[in-house]
Design a protein that fits this description.
Cofactor: Mg(2+)
Enzyme class: hydrolase
Keywords: Hydrolase, Magnesium, Metal-binding
Number of domains: 2
Shape: globular
Structural class: alpha+beta
Distance between the termini: 45 Å
CATH topology of the largest domain: Fructose-1,6-Bisphosphatase, Chain A, domain 1
Largest sheet: 7 strands, mixed
Order of helices and strands: HEEHEHEHEEEEEEHEHEHEEH
GO molecular function, one term: metal ion binding
Catalytic activity: a myo-inositol phosphate + H2O = myo-inositol + phosphate
Strand order of the largest sheet: 3-4-5-6-7-8-9
Helix content: 25-40%
Oligomer: single chain
Strand content: 25-35%
Radius of gyration: 18 Å
CATH class of the largest domain: Alpha Beta
CATH architecture of the largest domain: 2-Layer Sandwich
Length: 280
């Protein structure tokens, strides 16, 4: 419960700028100083050579956990690195308390290799409903924000995804082959058809931002980790886009989705991609 019975809408109206400041500060103090300056001892593997974690990930998440929890008393922070250390933490997404969903460095592999295609993802949810989100790509000078019912913005400019231009192939970012099973690879083969141009995704958060900006037509992802999807899903929704699982339902951050799922710049495109996936 929020202190003094303040509603989340009231909290967001009063403290959204403080959340933005926290996200920017995490980048300025813990992430950017290590960008292209990582020492070997600051990089570790989690589940394998393609699943990396750095001191930037760990320290930025610790900073955001402390600040976000203090901004909204009674809330819980579910961060990628905390869940890696203790998978039980993830269950808070299904609880009654407001939840901050945090990916401190989305695109860690790009970050490690000195590519600017990484970002910090923060979303606020309650009872499985996404309420607000922040996507910060510090090396690109971009901060995208969304509040449910209040629109999507990039550096203060409103985003409208709009429908794809007629007569050209749909550009679709898909789960990277390094992170898909053989069965998932077979499902994604359905996108190799006339009128569709699939490619492996980079940072999930930045792919969602590209959809919200109308620079990418759709994504197709085969995993459920909420920290990768929550912030981007709300941003795309508020920019006029849609997301669908194989059963035709919107993706649920609480899990149990029929995968893979698609997020697209408009509902018609989402239905077209889903149709290809279900026909495979």
């Amino acid at each position: 419960m929020i202190v003094n019975t303040e509603t989340i809408d009231e909290f967001l109206a009063r403290r959204s700028a403080d959340v933005e400041d926290a996200v920017r500060t995490a980048a300025e103090t813990e992430i950017l100083p290590r960008f292209r300056h990582l020492a070997q001892h600051e990089v570790d593997q989690k589940t394998g050579p393609h699943d990396l974690v750095t001191d930037a990930d760990r320290n930025a998440e610790l900073y955001l956990t402390g600040v976000l929890g203090a901004l909204l008393p009674g809330s819980i922070v579910v961060g990628e690195e905390a869940v890696h250390a203790d998978p039980a933490v993830y269950g808070a997404i299904q609880g009654d308390a407001p939840v901050w969903i945090v990916d401190p460095v989305d695109g860690t592999r790009q970050f490690v290799h000195g590519d600017d295609g990484f970002c910090t993802l923060v979303a606020l949810a309650r009872h499985g409903e996404l309420l607000a989100s922040w996507i910060h790509a510090p090396a690109r000078g971009q901060l995208a924000t969304a509040v449910r019912g209040g629109g999507a913005f990039l550096n203060g400019e409103r985003l409208h995804a709009g429908p794809p231009a007629a007569g050209r192939d749909l550009e679709v970012a898909t789960s990277h082959p390094d992170f898909t099973t053989d069965e998932q690879k077979r499902a994604l083969l359905a996108l190799r058809t006339d009128g569709v141009a699939p490619r492996p995704c980079g940072s999930a958060g930045l792919e969602y931002l590209a959809v919200a900006r109308g620079l990418l037509d759709a994504t197709v992802f085969s995993w459920e980790a909420a920290w990768d999807h929550a912030a981007g899903l709300l941003l795309v929704e508020e920019a006029g886009g849609a997301h669908l699982t194989l059963t035709g339902e919107p993706f649920r951050i609480t899990g149990g989705n029929a995968l893979p799922f698609t997020t697209a710049r408009d509902e018609a495109t989402a239905k077209r991609i889903r149709g290809l996936l279900t026909a495979s």
